[in-house]
Write the structure tokens for this entry.
Amino acid sequence: MGNLSFASLIRRPESGAFLGMVFVFVFFAIFGGRNFTSFAGAASWLNVAANLGIIAIPIGFLMIAGELDISIGAMVPAASMSMGIISGHYGLPIPVGILMTLGFAVVIGWINGIMVVRTAVPSLIVTMGTLFAVTGLTLFLSILLTNTTAVAMNPPAWAKAIFGGFYFNSYQVIIVWWLGLTALYVYFLHFSPWGNWLFAMGGDKESARNAGIPTTKFTIGLFILSSVSAAFVGLCQTILFNSAQVSTGMSFIFNAIISVVIGGVLLTGGFGSVIGIFFGTLTFAMVNQGIYFTDFDRNLSSLIIGVMLLIAVLMNNTFRQMALSYTGSRKKD
Amino acid sequence: MSGQTPVIELRNVDKSFGPIDVLHDISLSVNAGEVLCLLGDNGAGKSTLIKTLAGVHRPTRGQFLMDGAEVSFERPRDAQEKGIATVHQFGGTFPLMTIGRSFFVGVEPTKGWGPFKVFDRKTANAIAVKAVRDFGITRIDDGDRLIGGLSGGERQSLAIARAVHFGARVLILDEPTAALGVKQASHVLRIVLEAKRRGIAVVFITHQVTHAMAVGDQYAVLIRGRVAANFRRGEKSREEITDLMAGGEALADLDVAMEG
Amino acid sequence: MMNMRKNMLAAMLASVALTGAASAADIAVIAGSANDAFFNRVKKGVDDAALVVQANGGTVNYLTTQNYDNFGPDLVQLINTAVSQGVDGIAIPVWVAESQVPALKSAADQGIKIMMYNSGAEVKEQIAGINYFGSDEFVAGEAGGAYMAKKGAKKILCHIHVPGAVNLERRCDGIVAGAEANGATVMRLPTPASIDSDVTGTSEALKAELLKDPSIDAVITMGAWASDAATIAIQQAGRPVLLGTFDLSPSVLERIKAGTQTMAIDQQPYAQAFLATTMLAAYIDFGIDLPTDPVLTGPGIVDAGNIDAALVGVAAGAR
């Protein structure tokens, strides 16, 4: 990537996120003791990061494009339930459950996308609508079909091995999916031509359209991606825990947005990086889980999480300012 | 009037939206290497005229010719493919993108093969920087800089350089100097002259008579959807033009009084 | 007591005067969001009770809040709806006393009979409630704590997934009492809202605690989903840990059946709703009043000993 000078590293969007992560890691390595950094302990925050990260990156894409999707909060439990009902309650093969669940997610994502591009309603409001609609639909259908709001399933070994099992006793297989998808997304956003389209859309939608970018199709595609990603995490959870219940995954909405913001994506769009979101997710997961390795009073968890996140975001902000105010390196070469 | 075929020409064009007539009987033409200054107050129909030229609207009546042959654009993309580029204020530049990336939005250069095509950052940066420097903006030397760090004049110049680089034969500049200070505006005017020197037909929309006087070869004043006057450089004085723009009212006196 | 009797008498007379020779009871049952698995059991109890009420010529109207976001005002709205429908009696839990008590008082003053279930036993006299059917969080926790200690637990982890929630804290208080009476200690673990209903996050939090403190040999979760998380945490901690939970779910029952979970504490919502509804009708129609007051419907502990019967109840939607 050319000159990897210190100055050019510092102004990359992910450098702030990286330093925030290092800070949090050191903090918990000191206060959490050996368990936090041990092989088994690391699984604790990596598992959480993987589940969150698969959702956070597509949410980051939407935020870079100037949109938002909070219906993922309903998609995670809806997909979990759909998987449980199709392959648990009705006992249909796992691939059928997966395909139908992801198909449902495509439809919801498409509806989100169409509504956002066809109306002038902000995506926050549109997806808030689908958030409630999908929650209600999930409840209604699960009562109608199974007469209960929680179902159990016993997935075969191969499904566990691919979608919801543990390796080395405590590492969820979804970590592999997360790393693979992250690599794919890095290529997509930073190396493929499409990444340029995304930044352009977030910077100035009108100009992007004038430059010949199919903004409408692209936006719909992004909503489908976030919906499908949330559904994927939901169905993996069902396979992992052999159980699904109707609930609202509100925590996923906030956790994903927080991870993206810690990762250096601007709330106003047009700026961000996949690696930054990756670090942001890890930071959030460490903050969230690190607390259980420490001796702090458990009633302080939320307070400590809040303070650590603020510090991480502030560090990040400082570095972004440096990146933006950078005006040419004047190097002689 | 040199006998050459104009690059673009409108003949007796009307444009109405339903019952509302916005443009009446517009006849204008621009030759290669010429600057047509389109003057007019707010609401005179300038933006409708621009959009008609750019293929956003289709004329209700009348003819639209390019190189003497009639054309009809279904959508802006068709006009772009024919070489008509519209540059709005800061248009086509994205504050949080690098110069290289911004320059190539929608037409990214790639290297590699098959599904693994990769955005060619080095090439993009080199081409973008060269294109801008060729237009005389020498302060831009690093394609990795963010657009947001450029001055308004530099951004506008970058947008124009970009349009020219991608083969624009007709440049429609929508108020490129409106929000700029004197020095920045003079940068942009120099870019306009450079584009003209390269044989591009320029339609320069402005309501600043001084800027129009500096670069124009031909002037058209638009009032309530009609071409109120169409004349060559030097045929009318600055005061007369200001008068015309204000709809014939004696604004020129006021202008003079204020300057004096 | 005397005062209450007098009030009731007055209310009874008033109701007779108002409804005249009305034949059978028209009842409204007010409940929480259908989104909540718990209230699906409640609804089954109400539905079954409605058959009895209808057989005597009465009606049952089941009213629920949409969610818990604007809980107090929503409940008052439902009470007013019931009153304006001219019902003879209302069966209702009191969750938000400061909002609900004035509304219920005014309903009682108009001669409407109030039967309480699930929550709010402490305000029964204020609203002239007839009886209370429900569980006592403390008593339920106590039973769970004692059960675990008798199974050999020495240190019980009490997981609270909504820190500060009064009913969950009461359960934990009960667990402490029940455990200490039988020679065990309790550690409380409140987990923050950022991992509420996030199974992976909760599982990892529990695992970290189990790894950190090897003396923990039992876990009790306050919700069925959290015991899904605890199951994985225990597996990975790699030592035998007893697992109990409040509330039932299919996966909880499967684990009890398979022997990977020790027990579940059920407050038996079906019984709460069924009894509250039928006894309210019986009071209005026939003047029947139970001497036992309050009536505890829980805790019912489900373990390997009674799992098969519980599974039949689950299939019917009653548990």
